[in-house]
Amino acid sequence: MSGESKARKGMFTYVGIIFAIALAIGAIYAVFLALGEPNSSQPSPHSIQQN
Q1: What is the chain's pLDDT, residue by residue, as a tens digit (51 residues)?
Q2: Rounded distance between C-alpha atoms, residue 50 and residue 32, angstroms
Q3: Any idea what DSSP says for residue 2?
Q4: DSSP 8-state symbol, 1
Q5: Which residue of 6, 19, 21, 36 has the fewest CB atoms within a 10 Å radius of its CB?
C-alpha cells in the first residue's frame, strides 16, 4: 500500500511542476510579448493626412 501512495505523491508532484512551468511560460509571454505590441487603434505617427 505504501508503494501506491508514494507513486501517487510523485505523480502529483510531477503534474504540479509541469503546471507551474506552464504558468511561468504564460506569464513571460504575457509580460514580454503581448504587452509590447503596439495598439492597432492608434494611427501611425507617419501616416499621411488625407484632408
Answers
A1: 577 899 999 999 999 999 999 999 999 988 887 666 655 566 666 666 666
A2: 35
A3: H
A4: -
A5: 36
